[in-house]
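Memo to structure team: turn this sequence into structure tokens by end of day. - J.P.
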Amino acid sequence: MADIVVVKVKPGSRKGPRVEPVSGAELTIYVPEPAVDGKANEAVARLLAAHYHLPRSRVELVSGARSRVKRFRIDR
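Reply from structure team:
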């Protein structure tokens, strides 16, 4: 079963790494990595995997690679 999670990313944040639920399947994620060369995207994927207690291979960026609002597929 796969779920789509909408994530608002705050790259380069001193609050991170941190996951804050907003509503339903929406999250705000703070990561210290900069939004350069996909570093923030990878950090968000790792953090989502840890948040849902899944291996990193079960988390896939579906859309929003260059946006602060992203959609990830979580395979449970």
